[in-house]
Write a structure and sequence with these properties.
about 130 residues, two-stranded antiparallel sheet, DUF6540
Length: about 130
């Protein structure tokens, strides 16, 4: 059995980006429809990897319309590999700003949730965990 994999955005400045895997689209309890893979936190304190069961992103009040984009599929048996070999293998964004909103290292671009998602996606495709 294969599951659909999406990216989705939630309103913010900049928008929050996550990977959503649709596990049971017709589940009675909407919280059991899928799983969200993302990092939470901020650039002052750093972020942490925070996977969780999730409703469809389109059912969230902060979902940005038209941003749920199918990127591929994943075999049911590869879910644990995805979490271990991709999500946990890519370090979450560290603290990068001071309280005065100055970068610790101005020579490096900011690394946010969206960049983390892109790195996780790239790794999942390279390892053959995600299929197009």
């Amino acid at each position: 059995m294969c599951y659909n994999v999406y990216t989705a955005e939630y309103a913010g400045h900049p928008n929050h980006v996550a990977i959503y895997i649709e596990i049971e689209p017709d589940a009675v309890d909407i919280i059991d429809r899928g799983r969200l893979y993302h990092v939470t936190g901020n650039l002052l304190q750093g972020m942490t990897y925070d996977p969780r069961d999730s409703k469809d992103p389109q059912e969230s009040a902060s979902f940005v319309p038209d941003t749920k984009i199918k990127i591929g599929t994943i075999a049911q048996g590869d879910l644990a590999r995805f979490e271990t070999e991709c999500c946990r293998a890519v370090p979450p964004p560290p603290a990068q700003l001071t309280l005065a909103n100055k970068r610790f290292d101005p020579s490096k671009p900011l690394y946010r949730c969206g960049e983390w998602v892109e790195d996780v996606k790239k790794l999942a495709f390279e390892k053959g965990i995600f299929k197009r």
